[in-house]
Design a protein that fits this description.
77% helix; mainly alpha; 3 helices
Length: 117
């Protein structure tokens, strides 16, 4: 049989939800979300456009049919660039996410006492 913890007539779940709502309303948390959006939205937009341009160009134009070098067409160069872009963006995101994780940890550390009350 599990006992429900009550604080001021609130269940444990309601207390945790209240603490979470208070945390997400802080300036620091909103700033963290804004920073993440400023990075993720442009990078994702660029990647999606870059990714979907290849099939469009290959299907509807002759731009990628020309020889780039060593008997390799621009279509192959573009396709290989997609792999490079994925790895570069992945590595950049790993570095950025470390900073976001540190900011999130700082926010939790700052508001730990208020969350636990």
């Amino acid at each position: 049989m599990e006992l429900q913890v009550k604080t001021n007539n609130l269940t444990k779940e309601q207390v945790e939800n209240k603490s979470y709502r208070q945390l997400i309303e802080t300036v620091e948390f909103k700033d963290l979300l804004q920073r993440k959006k400023r990075f993720i939205v442009p990078v994702t937009t660029f990647f999606l456009v870059f990714y979907f341009v290849l099939p469009v160009l290959a299907a509807y134009t002759d731009i990628l049919n020309g020889e780039a070098f060593f008997n390799i067409t621009w279509a192959w160069v573009y396709a290989l660039l997609q792999f490079i872009v994925v790895w570069v963006f992945g590595l950049v995101y790993l570095k950025k996410s470390e900073k976001y994780d540190k900011l999130a940890q700082n926010i939790l550390t700052t508001y730990r006492k208020e969350i636990e009350e």
